Amino acid sequence: MSATVIPYDVKPHPLTGMYNGKFGIWLFLASEIMLFGALFSTYVLLRVGAPDGTWPIIGAETTRGDQILNVGLAALNTAFLITSSVTMVLAWANLKMGDFKKGQTMLLVTVALAGAFLVVKYFEYSSKLHHYAVTFDEHFERDGVESRTFKASTDNGDRTIHYLWGHVEETKKDSEGTILGYVFAPDPEPGHEGAEHKKVEIQKSEIARLTTWGPEGSSFLGCYFVITGLHGLHIVGGIVVMLWFVLTGSKMWKSQPDKYANRIECTGLYWHFVDLVWIFLFPVLYLL
Amino acid sequence: MSDTSHELPFWKKYIFSVDHKVIGIQYTITALLFLAFGFFLMLVMRYQLAYPNQPLPGVFASVLGEPVIGEVVVNEATGEKGKVLTGDGYNAFGAMHGTIMVFLAIVPLAVGGFGNFVLPLQCGAPDMAFPRLNMASYWMYLPGGILMLFGFFVKGGAANSGWTSYPPLSTIATTGQTIWLLGMVVLITSSLLGSVNFIVTVVQLRVKGLSFFRLPFFVWAQLVTAFLLLLAFPPLEAAGILQLMDRVADTSFFDPGGLIISGVERNTAGGGSPLLWQHLFWFLAHPEVYVLILPGLGIIAEVIANNTRKPLWGYKSLVYSAIFLGFMSFIVWAHHMFMTGMGTTLSTFFQATTMIISVPSVIILTCLIISLWGAKIRFTTPMLFALSFLPMFAIGGLTGLPLGLTAADIHLHDTYYVIGHFHYVVAPGTIFAMFAGVYYWFPKASGRRMNEWLGRIHWFFSFIFINAIFMPFFFMGMAGVLRRQFDQTETLHGAAVQGLSVMATWAAIGLAVAQLPFVINFFWSMFAGERVGQNPWNATTLEWSAPSPPPHGNFDTVPVVARGPYEYSVPGEKDDFSMQATA
């Protein structure tokens, strides 16, 4: 590196009370607010404009996300992230007090909690990607399975939606690989969760649209996957940075302990922001 | 401070450099190359517009091989073969001309180039606050730009839905659009890194005595620009991600459902909104207009103060106007959307804010014009560009007012009038400011002055031709010729004003030729220009207190500032300029 010395690299500037890195990370977070702000605005706009009976997914009785998302797992994840924010602060506080070993341990605990968050998220995502919604052009009934109906009001009067939620057990194809139909296991009726699981074969020609509960499932699911996905990428980014400091921190700690503590402080600011985004995501997507 | 620069290996000194001046020059040269490429795309398009469906002249046809634009067809009507630009090729060229000029040429030149080179020097800083982050932002910009150009080589050619990429057209467009979106995400990240760096540098690295109101207007303009980039670009990044999802993951953010393509209904959940894209896009793209113009105004202010030999008139008004402009630019975006059916209430609100935002722009221009009053003007090349900037920017600005009024916009929307308006702001406006900046700071960057006579020839013919390109557009637009049209002679009103289109095309060719003196001057002066000292223009701001070219670390001794930025012709002083730095 060159011999050029940048002022206020470690010491705070008298005007802002911040060293360069801290000021920089605050500005970066301001831009992040605009990024997530745009996505939340997208959510609001699409939700307000969603046709009746399509939010959060086609056939839903209310517009609340908890009908199709797992609130319990999200609550667990909220606990993970809030705890990780505490351990993050402890990592910085210990470094500030000169206890390198304890600081690094706390950093590692933060990484572990972030990892736990991602594991839970994996199970949530995977259950959505293996869950299906099927809509029919008209009423469907076969082998004791009957399509559920939802009366949606539109500008042109009422429209009846015929639909089923459930799992695709098997895809029927002919010898050339063209899809003919599906063996479908519908979810039990609300209030009859303990009932025996049924299966039914549905011809492709009877289906108006078959979709997973993935991002293409509905506008809500699109928002859910994009926002939580982007948030997840921020978690991954945080893990990479923290692991980098866990692995290489001792070298910098020996030569410039103040600068190292500052870096952990900046990482912490970022991490609290990522937590904060989740604190907004949890009620907006899962509860409202 | 500066003793280590010569020990660095070549690749660290010139390629992966952390020195803000080298990075600034890298940005400048890369952006000038993109500028030339964007200009070339426009020349091909203009030829098609002047001579619809006639074979391109040999010089274009030989350059445009089939791999470059996949859909060039051979015209065999006369048995003689000739290459013409196809409609699809025209769309791709149009979209890429806009994208390249805005995101790869002007902004990197104005912010990445001039901002990087001049801003730390004018703050008296040894470098940017985060030198390695600075390097990273250039090394994201260049791959982002190359990725963008890679679009030309994929099936279906480059992005062809306009630089605005409105869905649903862009959602169902060819693969080039996906490349465009990926390129945009990389470029946005690059400019975010840059803007953080700029703001921290200005706020934290000003030397002793350099209070905010002693900053040159150029630094203020860059500071406001950096805030615009920081806060306006993320929503476009969000929108880009959403459109990418619409294209690759079959989501329906911008698709209301029921879209029928070639008789087949697109299988999506629906429920999306095409207007949502336009809101998110223009939320960036309107502040982007000020990102394009503010650094230009900053350069012009420096050049005018230096060549009038007196202080800028209304320095504080300039600063407050720039800040107000930056703030207002966030609440005018939907004046691009009057014709979308978003409703008269919203339109009226945005009409009002649009009228308000013209006030600070006029204040800035007025201050610059009054600065000329009673001055003994030095007609140097940078000053010639600066002086011609003023009326042309005024034309660009004032022709925007009818577009901001909902009633007038009904007639003018999406016509050549719009093209004339924003090109007057950006081409004779910002690009002239950029040329002024190149001539003005070239001695600082290279230690040599550019040739004055070649510079004057360059200015004179550029000034004539650039007006001859864009002035006809206003008349064509008012005659009703629509933008993005492949062949205007297919409509009666278009055919009636076809002569203006031919004139614009020949003026564009003339403008291309008029750049030759600049290219020659640039390279010749780099090696054989007249050697100059620290302060060839007798200027006052801090960059002229550093050696030319400044070494790594910039100043021999850290300067201390005792004065405002434009203390020219102070009564009682020995010289007609009093430098900011005390010796």
Characterise this structure.
The complex is a heterodimer of chains A (288) and B (583). Chain A has two domains: 20-130 and 218-287, Cytochrome c oxidase, subunit III, four-helix bundle (Four Helix Bundle (Hemerythrin (Met), subunit A), Up-down Bundle), CATH 1.20.120; 133-212, no CATH class. The longest helix of chain A has 37 residues, at 219-255. Chain A is 53% helix and 18% strand. Chain A is of the alpha+beta class and 288 residues long. In chain A, strand 4 (148-154) and strand 5 form a beta hairpin. In chain A, strands 1, 4, 5, 6, 7 and 8 form a six-stranded antiparallel sheet that branches. In chain A, strands 2-3 form a two-stranded antiparallel ribbon. Chain B is mainly alpha-helical. Chain B has one domain: Up-down Bundle (Cytochrome C Oxidase, Chain A). Chain B contains 18 helices and six strands. Chain B has helices spanning 10-15, 20-50, 58-63, 87-122, 131-150, 176-204, 217-248, 274-308, 315-328, 344-371, 381-398, 400-404, 406-412, 416-446, 452-478, 492-496, 498-514, 516-528, and strands at 73-74, 83-84, 260-261, 264-265, 448-449, 530-531. In chain B, strands 1-2 form a two-stranded antiparallel ribbon. In chain B, helix 2 (20-50) packs antiparallel against helix 4 (87-122) and helix 4 crosses helix 8. The radius of gyration of chain B is 24 Å and the shape is globular. At the A-B interface, helix 1 and helix 4 of A face helix 6, helix 7 and helix 8 of B.
Query: Mean of the pLDDT scores of chain A?
Result: 92
CATH domain class of the largest domain in chain A: Mainly Alpha
Low-confidence stretches of chain B: 1-5, 67-73
Please report the number of helical segments of chain A. Answer: 5
Q: Strand order, biggest sheet of chain B? A: 1-2
The chain pair forming the largest interface, with residue counts per chain, is:
A-B, 49 and 52 residues
Can you identify the CATH superfamily of chain B? Cytochrome c oxidase-like, subunit I domain
- Range of helix content of chain A: 40-55%
Counting helices, strands and paired strands, the structural category of chain B is mainly alpha
- Which range does the strand content of chain A fall in? 15-25%
Q: Which word captures the global form of chain A?
A: elongated
Major β-sheet of chain A, in short?
6 strands, antiparallel
The backbone outline of chain B, from C-alpha atoms, is globular
Summed over residues and divided by their number, the pLDDT of chain B gives a mean of 91
The number of domains of chain A: 2
Report the portion of residues of chain B in β strands: under 5%
